[in-house]
Design goal:
single chain; transferase; transferase activity; alpha/beta; two-stranded antiparallel sheet; 8 strands; Glycosyltransf_2; 6-stranded mixed β-sheet; Spore Coat Polysaccharide Biosynthesis Protein SpsA, Chain A; Nucleotide-diphossugar_trans; Glycosyltransferase
Length: about 200
């Protein structure tokens, strides 16, 4: 595993203004072995044309011509991500990767041989966010600690409610190897593991 591959899935629905920034943070990473899947949910704000105009072979545009509920749009991108192999994460179209994120993640998974790598999210409130007190708010954990966890021990503790679900990995704040996601398919009874809970709101 000299150069782990990463796939970043960005579901989006008519939010080109923030998607531009999300894509910029991906394409400016100092690591070459990654791709970005833009799951465009029937966008009519120029999103598809913008993504095509970038002409970047690392970006895969996956549009649909009918508006899907958020959960369906997120889930339909999973088979595309699994087909690429490597590690998968989901990134909000108003979020971004911090500089050097992929290079650091590659270093950790090479050294530890882990199938899942989770992190505490860095949070930033856009200037136009609805809650005024969150506008231009930035927070980031400053600890430089890597904790190696046993998945079986953690799941046992979660089953006993001795740890919260938010203390475990999720596709919105983790890189999860495709082999793990593929193994989850029979347990979910679906064509692919859900990336997020179902919602009727388009995204």
């Amino acid at each position: 595993m000299n150069h782990p591959e990463f796939t970043i899935v960005i579901p989006t629905r008519n939010r080109l203004a923030t998607l531009r920034s999300a894509l910029k943070t991906c394409l400016e990473q100092d690591y070459d072995h990654f791709s970005v899947i833009v799951a465009s949910n029937n966008c009519d704000d120029g999103t598809d044309d913008y993504v095509r105009s970038l002409g970047d072979s690392r970006i895969v545009l996956a549009p649909v011509d009918q508006t899907l509920p958020m959960g369906e749009n997120w889930s339909r991108a999973m088979p595309l991500a699994l087909a690429r192999g490597g590690y998968v994460t989901y990134l909000g179209d108003d979020d971004g990767l911090v500089p050097h994120a992929l290079a650091f993640a590659a270093e950790v998974v090479r050294r530890e041989g882990c199938k899942v790598l989770s992190w505490r999210k860095v949070e930033y409130g856009w200037p136009n966010v609805v809650v005024e007190t969150f506008r231009n708010h930035f927070s980031m954990a400053m600890e430089r600690v890597i904790e190696v966890r046993s998945s079986s021990d953690f799941l046992a503790r979660a089953h006993e409610y001795s740890v919260g679900f938010d203390e475990g990995p999720g596709l919105y704040s983790s890189f999860v190897h495709a082999s793990v996601l593929t193994a989850l398919q029979p347990a979910t009874g679906a064509g692919s593991p859900r990336a997020r809970p179902t919602s009727t709101r388009p995204m």
